[in-house]
Amino acid sequence: MKIIKILPVLLLVLAMSVIPSISGTPQKLNVAEDPAEVGISGERLARVDRLMENYIADGKMVNGVVMLGKDGKIFFNKAYGWKNRESGEVLNNDDIFRIASMTKSIVLVGLMTLFEEGKFLLDDPLWHYIPEFRNMNVIDKFNSDGTYSVRAAKRPITIRHLLCHSSGIPYETAYNRDSGISFTSTMDDITIGELIKKLATMPLAHDPGEKYTYGMSVDVIGYLIEVLSGQSLDLFLEERIFKPLGMEDTYFYLPEEKKHRLVTLYSYNREGNNFIVSDNYVQQNFAIEGPQKCFLGGAGLCSTAGDYAKFCQMLLNKGTFNDNSIISPRVIEMMSTINQLAENDRPSHNFQFGLGFKIHSVSDAAHTLTSKGGYGWSGMYGTYYRVYPEENMFIVFMSNEFPWPDRDRSDELLQVTVFQSLTE
After folding, report:
1. Any bridge partners for residue 324, and if so which?
2. pLDDT by residue (tens digit) across 34-60?
3. Alpha-carbon distances of 127 from 124, 136, 196, 356, 372, rounded to whole Å
4. Counting Cβ atoms within 10 Å, is residue 362 exposed (0-12), middle (13-18) or buried (19+)?
5. pLDDT by residue (tens digit) across 224-265?
6. What is the CA radius of gyration of the chain?
7. Distance from the CA of 242 to the CA of which of 43, 303, 348, 389 falls in 20 to 30 A?
8. Residues whose CB is less than 8 angstroms from the CB of residue 20 and which lie 6 or more positions away in sequence, other chains included
């Protein structure tokens, strides 16, 4: 009888000893000794290097880090240009960049961990959790003297609307420019809750669910996370995402010992012929100066290519990395593969949109060699990432230049040079 009782336990132990890590997918990012290990032609991959070097040599870019991963291995990781050109400081792979809207993807994954816990449903009205959004107005008509009239919104903003940027909450526009609201970065002595409640007093650009309008929806989500979790957004992300993934260099505001690693922000000059050090004091310094109490969920984080690569691998793994389960495969699938624009949405852009991710269409794949179903996002200071489930591959690109007239073109050229290096 004793043997019969012990046998099931022994079988369980033996079974667990042969089960691979959580999902059977890479839980650490190793370095490929040869790109051929992951189906990449080293000869063709050299075109990525030449593309970036030419951008620097031709004065079309001041700094950039390219990190490429496939099948859980980093097969390309190189820095170009300068952390600070004027002082001659060369850029390093682990230097820290302002990632602007790439913050959104991290925050939205954070929100969906609360969805998994039953804290809300996607089509719940936002005002159930943030009452200030209960009776919203919409811009009805602009007058010749610069004033405008409003009317009541036809329907409430839902959480789905926030996730899909169809809430009607815009970024800076002519009518909200003097509102005192910080739209992308701030050194104001204000919390995110105070800022979002001020935002709720502004009229919407259109009725919720009417169309896609890129704006501060994810900043609202950042505050919604605080309401639902009872934690400040920075601590919530640290606990739920950064520590479990090993993202040790990702912050809203850099600690003293890491401030020296922040890359200088450059700007194309008014004459349009050269990059100069950005004279926008807030954008240049928000991460290292000021009250440091406003956690902008739509644009506030700083990070490294290596840290963001871990986040990308977690997405490829459908929710796990570093032997930690961050979010379920079902939720990642919902966010990244299903067009979540509500029935009455009319997207003004020619792409599908998941819950926070732009999803590559057939058109995208046709002109950049990428695969349909890839997804990702970018940041206004020159950063972007893409995850390609079909190839089990990701691209992370970091640069800090705004405005940068060649940004979209450089993104597409990088994708072309990466995908042409695939051998299978």
Report:
1. 321
2. 999 999 999 999 999 999 999 999 999
3. 9, 10, 12, 20, 36
4. exposed
5. 999 999 999 999 999 999 999 999 999 999 999 999 999 999
6. 23
7. 389
8. none
